């Protein structure tokens, strides 16, 4: 079987690593990939910003299965185009991907289908923002409507700050077209939860849950990032809560999309806040999360190829997945300055030593390789991921591995999963 993965980050490296374990696999490609992925799959050049470039690659490879990693190709309609040409592809159509590509669409969809979420206002001008702020208490969450690589969310401590951030987004200076419309939201309090399900357009099957750490600094301080680490355990949600989330969030989304004429196939990532009022939807992603995919796939013991095909072919069931009872954790090592301006091209040392730590797999996110050495090539550089019988041991292993890796400017949070370890 010939499989193509689109993308170049830590999520894609985790997918490649897991796909390689399938006995059905014959050829594995990643486009464009990165330095670490190149050790496990053939990396091919592609411009993921243009549908023509992706389609040309598909025409050349004729893959038996394509897995779309990042959100941009989905928003461009890669699934529609590949499906039209008869190439099996995992992911939602361009219309269904609006659940992620437009926060205003997602919020209005949630409201229509009575799925719990924070109160909100959609604004196209600073005048609308100032008027809407009268209905909110500080702090206020300001979100860019469009795709912003995980950086389009600001928690403003005051209404004045919210107005200032919204004005910068709307002007295009902060995020370009992604901020042409903004969503103001009530700031929810509680623990965040990443709850992913596979869907075939009708049925859903949950994956194990995970918790992401968005802020750049320890203690959830500093600006939001694409994610600085994540963990997954068997008790992060109990069976009763998992069933509630399936029946009151995931399944109503899939049913609602179909009722509105837009079938949703692929993986639905429900970003939730577990509040005193119950679970509330913060956002949807229409693809695997990053870095949640790394610890989730570390716990998957069944064949990922089979599960992906079940979604495409309309036969998703809970039996598609078999999970380890172990805990897993991913710690993201980032370039100096991330999530702001950062330098690239810094040599990375200690990868072999880190990978030799028991239960550890180092997933590459922003790396390149030349003359036998690895170099930094992005903001989030590595996802150091560990699995163990209990969360405390997994955390210890991940940080033991992190300590062995060196590159100029490297930084990472020291408290990934710390609250969960303290509770256990």
Topology, pairings included?
Layout (H helix, E strand, L loop, with lengths): L1 E6 L2 H10 L7 E6 L9 E2 L7 H11 L3 E4 L2 H6 L1 H7 L4 E2 L7 H4 L1 H10 L7 E4 L2 H7 L7 E5 L8 E4 L2 H13 L10 E5 L4 E10 L3 E3 L4 E2 L2 E3 L3 E4 L4 E4 L6 H21 L5 E11 L2 E8 L7 H6 L5 H10 L13 E8 L12 E2 L2 H5 L4 E5 L2 E4 L2 E4 L3 E9 L2 H14 L13 H6 L1
Short description:
This protein has 424 residues and is an alpha+beta fold. The chain contains 14 helices and 23 strands. The chain folds into 4 domains: 92 residues, Rossmann fold, CATH 3.40.50.20; 56 residues, Dna Ligase, domain 1; 124 residues, D-amino Acid Aminotransferase, Chain A, domain 1; 96 residues, Glycinamide Ribonucleotide Synthetase, Chain A, domain 4 (Alpha-Beta Complex).
* CATH superfamily grouping of the largest domain: ATP-grasp fold, B domain
Structural class: alpha+beta
Largest sheet: 5 strands, parallel
The shape, in one word, is globular
Output the CATH topology of the largest domain.
D-amino Acid Aminotransferase, Chain A, domain 1
Report strand %. 25-35%
**Strand order in the largest sheet:** 3-2-1-4-5
Radius of gyration: 20 Å
Instruction: Write down the CATH class of the largest domain.
Output: Alpha Beta
Average pLDDT, rounded to a whole number, is 96
Low-pLDDT parts are none
- From the 3D coordinates, which CATH architecture of the largest domain would you assign? 2-Layer Sandwich
Helix percentage: 25-40%
Number of domains: 4
Distinct helical segment count: 14
Q: N- to C-terminal separation? A: 42 Å
Q: Count the strands? A: 23
InterPro entries: ATP-grasp, ATP_grasp_subdomain_1, PreATP-grasp_dom_sf, PRibGlycinamid_synth_ATP-grasp, PRibGlycinamide_synth, PRibGlycinamide_synth_C-dom, PRibGlycinamide_synth_C_sf, PRibGlycinamide_synth_CS
Keywords: ATP-binding, Ligase, Nucleotide-binding, Purine biosynthesis
Cofactor: Mg(2+); Mn(2+)
EC number: 6.3.4.13
């Amino acid at each position: 079987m010939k499989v193509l993965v689109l993308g170049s980050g830590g999520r894609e490296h985790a997918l490649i690593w897991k796909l390689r374990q399938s006995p059905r696999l014959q050829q594995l490609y990643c486009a464009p990939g990165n330095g670490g992925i190149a050790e496990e799959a053939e990396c091919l050049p592609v411009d993921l910003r243009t549908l023509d470039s992706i389609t040309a690659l598909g025409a050349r490879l004729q893959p038996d299965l394509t897995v779309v990693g990042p959100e941009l190709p989905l928003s461009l309609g890669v699934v529609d185009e590949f499906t039209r040409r008869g190439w099996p592809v995992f992911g939602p159509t361009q219309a269904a991907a609006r659940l992620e590509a437009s926060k205003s669409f997602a919020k209005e969809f949630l409201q229509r289908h009575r799925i719990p979420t924070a109160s909100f206002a959609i604004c196209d001008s600073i005048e609308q923002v100032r008027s809407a702020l009268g209905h909110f208490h500080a702090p206020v969450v300001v979100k860019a409507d469009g795709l912003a690589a995980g950086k389009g969310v600001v928690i403003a401590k005051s209404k004045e700050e919210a107005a200032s951030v919204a004005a910068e987004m709307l002007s295009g200076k902060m995020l370009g077209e992604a901020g042409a419309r903004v969503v103001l939201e009530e700031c929810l309090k509680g623990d965040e939860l990443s709850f992913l399900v596979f869907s075939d357009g009708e049925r859903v099957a949950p994956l194990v849950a995970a918790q992401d750490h968005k802020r750049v600094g320890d203690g959830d301080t500093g600006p939001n990032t694409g994610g600085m680490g994540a963990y997954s355990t068997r008790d992060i949600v109990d069976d009763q809560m998992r069933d509630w989330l399936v029946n009151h969030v995931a399944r109503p989304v899939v049913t609602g999309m179909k009722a509105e004429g837009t079938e949703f196939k692929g993986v639905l990532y429900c970003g939730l806040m577990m509040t005193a009022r119950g679970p509330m939807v913060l956002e949807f992603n229409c693809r695997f999360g990053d870095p949640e995919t790394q610890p989730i796939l570390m716990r998957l013991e069944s064949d990922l190829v089979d599960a992906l095909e079940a979604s495409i072919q309309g036969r998703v069931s809970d039996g598609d997945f078999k999970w380890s009872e172990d805990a897993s954790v991913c710690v993201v090592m980032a370039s100096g300055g991330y999530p702001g301006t950062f330098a690239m091209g810094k040599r990375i040392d200690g990868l072999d030593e880190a990978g030799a730590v028991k239960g550890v797999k180092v997933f590459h996110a922003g790396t390149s390789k030349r003359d036998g050495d690895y170099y930094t090539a992005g903001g989030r550089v590595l996802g150091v991921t560990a699995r163990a019988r209990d969360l405390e041991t997994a955390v210890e292993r991940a940080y033991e591995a992190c300590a062995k890796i060196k590159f100029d400017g490297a930084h990472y949070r020291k408290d990934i999963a710390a609250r969960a370890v303290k509770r256990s």
